[in-house]
Design brief:
five-stranded parallel beta sheet; 4 helices
Length: 140
Amino acid sequence: MSHFEPSASSHILLVEDNTSLCKCLKQFLVDHGYQTVTADTLKKGLELLGEHRPWLCLLDLNLPDGSGLELLNKVVSNGDRCRVIVMTAFDLPHLRPAHAGGVLAGWMNKPVDPLKLMQIVKAEESRQSAMMAGLRTVPE
């Protein structure tokens, strides 16, 4: 099976308003070979979603100008290949939208465990590889 190789224009979108966490996560992803663009607000995240059409989005729910659920809903309505890993300090089951099941790649509590994060990212990379290879059924 060929491995998914994100193109030069393919990014991970990281939407996180905590500057320190955002910087650390971006560096962690870059160190593992992933091009990463960042946003610290919902507005900027929505702009970058349209501009870069990422294959993966790491998303904080509690943003200074709104809920990350709005961005999640945009990904669902776009119907493209982007999947979302939600990162939140508030693990309240009622926040997990049932309609986003096909888009959600993971739901992580903060503080984010980098090893668990990388497991999810690698699983999504494999999923993308399978999709690009033309497989009709891809494990969730």
